[in-house]
Design brief:
The protein has 244 residues and is α/β, with parallel strands linked by helices. The chain has one domain: EAL domain (TIM Barrel). The protein contains 9 helices and 10 strands. It has helices at 14-22, 59-67, 70-86, 106-116, 135-148, 166-171, 180-187, 190-205, 217-226, and strands at residues 26-35, 41-52, 55-57, 93-98, 122-126, 152-157, 174-177, 208-211, 230-231, 241-242. The protein has an 8-stranded mixed barrel, surrounded by 4 helices. Helix 9 links the parallel strand 8 and strand 9. Helix 2 (59-67) packs across helix 3 (70-86). The structure holds calcium ion.
């Protein structure tokens, strides 16, 4: 969809988010996750997309505004996840982003259990939409996901704007490395050694690795050289899958 992008998040209010939910001004894009050993699609990450006043809005400001009101945030997330599950591409693992704040009380947990009941090939990417990671919510959220029996992915590793939590690293089945690694490695080769350290830890622990933000052939070759298990990013945009 080639709509202009609204960049100033200060223009967004809670009322706008309520309106977007009410008028269903959102949809989902499924970004493929490619297996390096076979070149085939292993799974898809569901990405939320928003429109307000006929302009595309980046997801982060919408989630940040909603996050200030826990009930609004839960309402938005529950609508998004239901849509993302409903339109999921077949025969591939679905990666869904979930914020630990959505596990803050029994009603919310019961909703997720019901929504995910019977779902197959689902991996929950635990992510924090603000810099307000609360470890109590996080531990509880991980306990619940593991009780349901879905694999966990640690999202946004290496993104300096996201909190890093070692408990999440230790309990995750997938480690997802943020696209900023590619920029950092281009600026300073030391970062390649840091990433290699993470990847050898992942291998030793039987955790699978995903490098995000692959945009060029050069990025892809670097991912191959590093030995990551999976890649995703703009280079594979032609394989994207959309909801209606
Ligand atoms: Ca993610």
């Amino acid at each position: 969809m080639s709509l202009p992008l609204l960049c100033n998040e200060n223009l967004l209010s809670e009322c706008d988010v309520v309106r977007m939910i009410h008028e269903r001004h959102f949809w989902v894009e499924y970004e493929p996750i490619i297996a390096m050993n076979s070149g085939t699609i292993f799974g898809y990450e569901a990405l939320a997309r928003f429109i307000l006043n006929e302009r595309r809005i980046p997801p982060m400001p919408v989630l940040m505004v909603a996050h200030q009101n826990p009930e609004l945030f839960f309402h938005l997330e529950s609508e998004l996840k239901a849509l993302q599950l409903f339109h999921r591409p077949k025969n591939a693992m679905l990666f869904l982003n979930l914020d630990p704040h959505n596990f803050s009380d029994e009603t919310k947990i019961a909703f997720w259990k019901q929504l995910f009941d019977g779902a197959q090939d689902l991996c929950l990417e635990v992510t924090e939409n603000t810099d307000d990671m609360q470890t109590a919510f996080l531990s509880h959220c991980l306990d619940e996901i593991q009780r349901i029996g879905f694999p966990i992915a640690q999202d946004d590793i290496g993104n300096d704007e996201k909190p890093f939590c070692f408990e999440l690293t230790s309990r995750a089945d997938f480690l997802k490395f943020d696209k900023t690694w590619l920029l950092k490695i281009k600026r300073c080769p030391d970062y390649q050694e840091i990433l290699k350290g993470f990847l050898s830890f992942a291998k030793a622990q039987g955790k699978r690795s995903v490098l995000e933000g692959i945009e060029t052939e050069g990025d892809f070759l670097l991912a191959r050289e590093l030995g990551v298990d999976f890649v995703q990013g703009y280079l594979f945009k032609h394989l994207n899958h959309h909801s209606c």
